[in-house]
Amino acid sequence: MSSHERQAQTLIEALPYIQKYTGKTIVIKYGGNAMISEELRKAVMSDIILLRLVGIRAVMVHGGGPEISQMLKKIGHESRFVNGLRYTDEETMNIVQSVLCGKVNKDLVSQINRLGGRAIGLCGMDAALFQAEKLDEQYGLVGKITGVNPAPVENALENGYIPVVATVAQGADADTAYNINADTAAAELAVALKAEKLVLLTDVRGLLRDPEDESTLIHAVRVKEVPDLIKSGVVSGGMIPKTQCCVDAIQGGVERVHILDGRIPHSILIELLSDEGIGTMLEREIGERRKSERRKGERRQAG
Description:
Blueprint: H1 3-21, E1 25-30, H2 33-36, H3 38-53, E2 57-62, H4 65-74, E3 81-82, E4 85-86, H5 90-114, E5 119-123, E6 130-134, E7 143-148, H6 151-158, E8 162-166, E9 168-171, E10 177-179, H7 182-192, E11 197-202, E12 220-222, H8 226-231, H9 239-251, E13 256-261, H10 267-273, E14 280-283, H11 288-302
Parallel strand pairs: 1-2, 1-11, 2-8, 5-8, 6-9, 11-13, 12-14
Antiparallel strand pairs: 3-4, 6-7, 9-10, 13-14
Helix pairs in contact: 4-5, 7-9
């Protein structure tokens, strides 16, 4: 097959997926190495712009842990973590708010615009998009989401923009802002928007039966299988809360959730618009495409 034929085949392969998802909402949580590498960042932005251009309502939700840590180090304020969550005192919260809602958010918006997209930046305090209460005293100003107002995101989508959302919440129990987990925020927003899909970009291939062996990728997981995967240790450490966010999103009405390796350029397009499927997909019941991938994966592992 010539290169031209391969290109045509790729476009033909994408067509049924484009037809299926046109007009639907997809929430993408952006983080990890995909934020740090300029090449990967550009690939993610290009993917999101393409989704928007073919009529898919793409929403980006982002954190910015490395940038926050860098700024705290610059001002001589030590980063401290409790049970994997950043301890957020008042000074840290000021940095979180200024870095996430300011520099990181506007840099992402600017890059999408430069690449030909139409992006608009929002943070969780705009129109009380995210409302939260203090999670626990031991974490400081870390919040638990108690309410989501999707109206500003919906308005942006209706007007043809790509919303880029920073994960800082308005305090519902105090006159403060709260630092909130970006995976949780993306899942809650996906539910509020009645999204078709939630995509979590990570620094791993997906859920692995053997964390040391990427060939043991689990292509598809039913929600009811998750407790056994946690119990057996297949899902452990930081993947437990991430996977729980996926379960919560599906139980809230999101059709499917994808855990993707953000280190792979254009992983979003490969996963959503091709037959290949390179990450882990969580859903209530496994569809035919993923059954086939699961069987292939199991044969590879057995071989």
